[in-house]
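worker-03 picked up job from queue 'complexes'. Input manifest follows; two sequence lines, order preserved.
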Amino acid sequence: MQEQGEVAKMDQVERLMERPLLYNNVDGVGELGLGFMFLGSALLQWLPIHATWWHRYGSFVGFLLLITALHYGVKAIKTHITFPRTGYVAYQKRGFFWRGAIAGGVAGMVCGLSFALSARSHWGIGRSPWSMTTPAALFGLVIAAGYAWRIAREVHWKWAVAAAMAICSVAIAMLPEGVINSLTANRSDFGALVAASMGALPLTFMLYGAILVLSGGISFVLYLRHTQPVTETAE
Amino acid sequence: MNLKTRKLAELDRVIHEPGRLMIVALLSAVEQCDFLYLQHETEMNKGTLSSHLSKLEEAGYVEVTKTYRGKIPLTLLRLTVEGRQAFQQYRKKMKEAL
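worker-03 finished. Artifact:
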């Protein structure tokens, strides 16, 4: 009996150790940041194809501006809204390094697989109507799975968000080749390898960005409604 | 006394208390946090949380820094090296015992 109690206690301890990481998105700002990142990236991929006035270094500068704005924006919200309401947390840098390394590894594997699939199409091996959209759909499904594992597990209504992401990925995978070609403005200088990333990927980014901004926005409003800033403490 | 019972008897009593175990588990996952965060996560009242933190500070497991955020008092908490080692030992012994 005592042993069962101790096992349950240790399970609780292991779950508690994950709480600080989940706290990073307690206000929905994590999702908002990622959502705006996706939307900004989609725009920065779309502009070089469709805007004739766009300078070739514009994407690079735009990306730097986007990262800077998001970094300081998130920091400002955390400092002025989240920390006075539910507390301040500083994370261990070592933990961030390993999580970054794992995320980078997964992203690298997905990119590698995506390019392999695109290359097959480029060289005329196993060409199918889906070959151009598969990499973007695969990328989307990995993001949806990561989201489900990290966020939806804890906040149950977020399963709907993960499901919406997965449905979007499948829908993108089923898009006809003509639609993807029109997204790349039917430019003949794009091979299948590039078209896959130039066409379907911004579409994935745009849809995922919109979903995450909406989900993060709802979380943020709920957070503001259910918490109040602490004005004075006697600790 | 069997081996499992002996292992349980050897556990660090400062950490084994449920309230303090919650605090140490949370602190082990962060670099540092403030009093408000611990209160929010553990759902303890200020008095209980302060009492547990005092015991952990006395044992040398938690470092408490009192400062200000603007005009509002801010209590920052972090696990010391000894605290991290003690918590690792505690988890190891618990896993062996269960």
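worker-03 released lock.
The mean pLDDT of chain A is 79.
The first helix of chain A runs from residue 2 to 16.
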